[in-house]
């Protein structure tokens, strides 16, 4: 392979990797990734340079029914989270420690938003909320936030949890991002073009 071909191949791979990161795209098969194992008191991703690792909000680890589909703009159509298969009444757990930013009804369904350190928020719906959780309440990783409901479920008549992830950007704006990046290690494999 000559130098020019090699250079084009490297630029193409870098462009694909950048597009994957910018668009928040992850293959649906990544949803089958197992959660990271807990290591005696250690929390993966705890360093300031590593991405935080969230616990799964349903136990056992659920199947992804509908993947994240980042909309092209703030008001455009898309799917701003993951739909995770569950059952009515199943406990919904906090993915990480934080503070309740919102807890209440939105469009007839129970929703809760937890703000986490490092400019992240997790959102959960639809659920029957724990009545003791109010704005400002501290929650710990794995704490029950409520139970899964079907009212307004994306999977009606079945139950599923819609889990969203938001990250605060440099302009202080909040933007929906791919939750799988926080839930599990995702390995992206780039293959050379067939040319």
TrEMBL record:
Residue ranges constituting the M23ase beta-sheet core domain according to the UniProt record = 78-169
Ordered alphabetically, the record's keywords are:
Signal
Instruction: Supply the Gene3D superfamilies for this chain.
Output: Glucose Permease (Domain IIA)
Pfam families in the record:
Peptidase_M23
Q: InterPro entries, from UniProt? A: Cell_wall_metabolism_enzyme, Dup_hybrid_motif, M23ase_b-sheet_dom
Put simply, this protein is called M23ase beta-sheet core domain-containing protein
Record organism: Nostocoides veronense
């Amino acid at each position: 392979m000559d130098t020019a071909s090699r250079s084009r191949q490297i630029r193409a791979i870098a462009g694909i990797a950048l597009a994957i990161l910018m668009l928040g795209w992850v293959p649906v098969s990544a949803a089958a990734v197992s959660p990271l194992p807990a290591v005696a008191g250690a929390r993966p991703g705890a360093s300031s340079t590593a991405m935080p690792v969230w616990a799964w909000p349903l136990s056992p680890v659920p199947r992804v029914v509908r993947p994240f589909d980042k909309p092209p703009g703030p008001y455009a159509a898309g799917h701003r989270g993951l739909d995770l298969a569950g059952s009515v009444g199943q406990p919904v757990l906090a993915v990480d420690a934080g503070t309740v930013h919102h807890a209440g009804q939105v469009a007839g369904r129970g929703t809760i938003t937890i703000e986490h350190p490092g400019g992240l928020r997790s959102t959960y719906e639809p659920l029957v909320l724990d009545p003791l959780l109010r704005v400002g309440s501290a929650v710990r990783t794995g704490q029950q936030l409520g139970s899964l409901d079907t009212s307004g479920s994306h999977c009606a008549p079945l139950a599923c949890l819609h889990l969203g992830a938001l990250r605060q950007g440099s302009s202080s704006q909040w933007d929906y991002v791919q939750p799988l990046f926080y839930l599990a290690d995702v390995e992206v494999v780039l293959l050379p073009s067939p040319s």
